[in-house]
Amino acid sequence: MLPEFRAVWIVRSRQIINRYAYWLVILGYDPRDRSFLQRIYLIYLLIFFGIWAFAVLAFLAGMVATILATINLDAPNLTAVVLWSLILVVWVLSMLYKVSRRSPFVFSECDAYQICQTPVDRRAVALIWLLGEWPEAAVLFWAGAITFGFGLIEIKLHGDVVWRDAPQFALAGLRSLAIILPLHLALLLVTWAVGAYRLKRDNDQTNLHLVAPALASLLSIGLLIGGSGNLWARLASPSWRRLLWPITFPLQAAFGISAWSPGLIVALFLVGVGVVALWVSSSTLNLSRAAQETRNLAAQRLAIRRGNLEQARNLRRESRLGLMHKPIRIPSFSGLWAVVWRNTVQSLRTFELSKLMPWLSIFGVGLAAILAPDLGTRGWAIAIWVLLVGEKTSARFRLNLAKWWLLRQLPHLLDQLVLAEIAGPVLGVILVTWTAIGMSIILGAQSGFIMGSAIPLVALGIALAAVFDVLRACHASDLLAGMVPRVGALAFVLGLLFVVVPALVAELILQYTLSSWMGALGSVLISLALVFGLWRLTIKRYRRI
Q1: Do residues 246 and 266 lie in contact, with contact meaning Cβ atoms separated by under 8 Å?
Q2: Predicted TM-score of the model (pTM)
Q3: pLDDT score, position 314
Q4: b/e for 146-178, b at 16 or more Cβ within 10 A?
């Protein structure tokens, strides 16, 4: 086994060194320079960031002390145990959910050839790969353990902290860290053992995805029937702590409720159990399947470390739309509706909570533009709304335009294709803006009918303005390379015209007729004329590429 451990460690250690050397280079240290001055500089960096981390965690200790005092259990130490047991349980359940669907062993393209296709012992690969991933997975837990230790000391000193209390803070932080460090490692080993068992040979353990929900249900039932009072009182009850004894007993030692040595022994024993579990379950680990599942994830992590967030987003989108997904069972549509359906499926499969932020921004800025007390504030709000709408409605078109060579081969007319590409985002803008108008009417705003009647054409006009601006800057050579221009200033100017001109027409009609119906009709007609004219210009420009 020892030669195989050495062979795997040579590959893995180079990866770990390169991963952390990147940050050292940013800080001015060259790992390839073995001179005496570089070693002194490295020591200086370690001391500097050690003091900085101590100061930051000591500052955060005040927030932790406030949280512990707010929960108001029998003792701050007991509150810390309750919070940490809850954090670790939620983390373990989430990890079990992840490893039941994707391999915890992340292999890059090179690893797939250097490691996964060789007859090396799978147990050596599993243990060494976990040791390489452990620091990044545990750094927040380490910082949290030290911070909670600091917070308990701050409560003990009643907030009256001076520099001579630094040794006491350090001892409290090390006491909690020395137990939470192996405890977290033990839990990580167990979750990885489950992930290794799922990748056993060529068998697909499909029932493992039920483990995390089943455990969560059992723990919830135990929490409901095992105590009385509010949530924190139930979590602090003896029955709950007995149920989670492997976790709560070391935590009690970490935060001074019980003796420290027995808690450390239990935590180290759990590490041994986790090592044995991973050792046994990884004996028949299918590394090829692990590499197939995580190759894209490894590329995403590399792109994030290099600061290329756009590439990371594209890789994440590809993984969600990739071949690992089962085909959808909802019947699709034929003809031009297939384009709309494709965009809908892509949006559903790439949905993230962060993607709600642009829609919330459109809603908030639109509401602010309606309720603004003066003309200047309303003008700024409208300008921001136009920018947000133009960016959002053209995003899908720009994304598909990056595959221009494929887009031009679709058997659809260009004028219909453009409308199909922007149909979904425009509909979303209409619904969101109508919601904002309805909210403003509830809050007492006037003229909601006139504004709402022109919104569909205004949103469509802003979308066409953004598309026209993108197509104006496009060149076939750039599109073949996948480079699509961003929305520029011309789209903003044209978008403002679609807001200002219908509003002025409606205002003029209201002054002469005093009829809101006539004002709404006038704004709709002028918007329709502007949309039709810009649509023809957009199609004409599209044909020139």
Answers
A1: yes
A2: 0.66
A3: 73
A4: bbbbbbbbbbeeeeebeeeeeeebbebbebbbb
Q: Which of 141, 138, 134 is nearest to 57 (CA)?
A: 141
344 three-state secondary structure: helix
Say how far apart CA 403 and CA 415 lie, in whole Å. Answer: 18
Question: What is the tens place of the pLDDT at every residue in 432-474?
Answer: 888 888 888 777 666 555 667 788 888 888 888 988 888 888 8
What is the number of other CB atoms lying within 10 angstroms of the CB of residue 33? 11
Residue 191 pLDDT exceeds 90: yes
How many beta carbons lie within 10 A of that of residue 105, not counting itself? 27
pLDDT of residue 141: 92
Amino acid at position 466, single letter: A
Position 309: which residue type?
Answer: L
Give the helix/strand (H/E) hosting 342: helix 337-349
> pLDDT at position 336, please?
66
Extract the tokens encoding 464.
């066409």
Q: How far apart, in whole angstroms, are the C-alpha atoms of residue 350 and residue 342? A: 12
Sign of CA dihedral 424, 428, 431, 437: negative
Of 378, 362, 367, nearest to 503 by C-alpha is 378
Phi-psi bin for 201: left (phi > 0), alpha (psi -120 to 50), beta? left
Closest CA to 362 of 422, 425, 423: 425
Burial code (b: 16+ CB inside 10 Å, e: under 16) for 498-519 equals bbebbbebbeebbeeeeebeeb
pLDDT in tens, 255-283: 888 888 999 999 999 999 999 999 999 88
